[in-house]
Amino acid sequence: MSARLMTIGRMARKSGLTPRAIRHYEQVGLIRGLPRTHSNYRVFDDVALERLRFIARCRALGFSLREIAAFCEVTGNGDWTCVQIEGLVRQHLNLVEEKIGELIEMRKVLVDRLAGCTGEQTPDCQFIRMLEQEDEQRKRETTALHGPERGEIQN
């Protein structure tokens, strides 16, 4: 029984990824293409297709390429345990929970700032003014902690 070989275009259609993403995953070593054809086409087999689908599912859950590479490394030799995978997933979950906390804080700031918007047709926007003031405040705090930036003249 011979393996079905697919060009990068067909792999893209079957995996839901772009040819550019597939080339990138090949370049960083997450998938392996077979030797190119005489016409210099990249070709892949069903094993590569399944790996691409695995990568796509991981990416949909927010896993980084480094994390996906770790999954592939752990599972690659067939001698792995669920405990190893659980550790990788828990690390990722901690990052996700951290990001959720940051997003909740961002949302609070935006909701608070929007409450101060007047909705008037004027170039005097309270939100922009607040951002400019926060930038000035941050500069003052940084200068107080670290001194003036190089090339900056202090009044």
What does this structure look like?
With 155 residues, this protein is mainly alpha-helical. Among the domains are: 1-63, Multidrug-efflux Transporter Regulator, Chain: A, Domain 2; 119-146. Helices cover 64% and strands 3% of the residues. The chain has a two-stranded antiparallel ribbon with strand order 1-2. Helix 4 (65-76) packs antiparallel against helix 5. The longest helix is centred in the middle third of the chain and has 34 residues, at 82-115. The model has no long low-confidence stretch (mean pLDDT 85).
Q: In total, how many beta strands?
A: 2
In helices, the fraction of residues equals: 55-70%
The neighbouring-strand order within the major sheet is 1-2
How far do the termini sit from each other?
A: 81 Å
Rounded radius of gyration (Å): 25 Å
CATH architecture of the domain at 1-63: Orthogonal Bundle
Approximately how much beta-strand content do the residues carry?
Answer: under 5%
The number of helices is 6
What is the C-level CATH assignment of the domain at 1-63? Mainly Alpha
Oligomer: single chain
Spell out the helices and strands N to C. Answer: EHHEHHHH
Categorize the overall geometry: elongated
Poorly predicted sequence stretches spanning 5 or more consecutive residues: none
The third-level CATH topology of the domain at 1-63 is Multidrug-efflux Transporter Regulator, Chain: A, Domain 2
**Coarse structural class:** mainly alpha
Residue-averaged pLDDT: 85
Q: How would a crystallographer describe the biggest sheet?
A: 2 strands, antiparallel
